[in-house]
Amino acid sequence: xxxxxxxxxxxxxxxxxxxxxxxxxxxxxxxxxxxxxxxxxxxxxxxxxxxxxxxxxxxxxxxxxxxxxxxxxxxxxxxxxxxxxxxxxxxxxxxxxxxxxxxxxxxxxxxxxxxxxxxxxxxxxxxxxxxxxxxxxxxxxxxxxxxxxxxxxxxxxxxxxxxxxxxxxxxxx
Length: 173
Prior knowledge:
It is a single chain. By secondary structure, the protein is of the alpha/beta class. The protein contains five helices and five strands. A five-stranded mixed sheet has the order 3-2-1-4-5, sandwiched between helices. Helix 2 crosses helix 5 and helix 3 packs across helix 4. The radius of gyration is 15 Å and the shape is globular. InterPro entries: RNase_HII (IPR022898), RNase_HII/HIII (IPR001352), RNase_HII/HIII_dom (IPR024567), RNaseH-like_sf (IPR012337), RNaseH_sf (IPR036397). Keywords: Cytoplasm, Endonuclease, Hydrolase, Manganese, Metal-binding, Nuclease. This is Ribonuclease.
């Protein structure tokens, strides 16, 4: 299997359709058995895209940390979560979508087009959008969101591990 790196082609297609603020959105935490699900929405500055963006799972922790810092400095970033209670109440998919919508709504300036990692549009999302299966390996904006969401969730799990030692939550990342 040939591994591909994300590019800006989905964003360029949206720009070609007249959209200006394109957000990538991704979530982290659907697989683990503990902790919240975290989502991030990222609108990249077309003139200042950090080098090395890729699916967070393809990057070392050190590389993710460096890219996270760069993204926080040069992009419009919003982070949100759905709590364990919301996961239990709604189910993990619905909670993931809730976190995604919260992240999108938390951007400092509204996005006018959303690139969504996955094959389903979250309920309540009325902004024009496109779903992209394996979007974190295909779109730079979604790859950026995957990095931000992963760093945030990993930090939450490390904090929980310090509060409640013995469960190994720091490794539940």
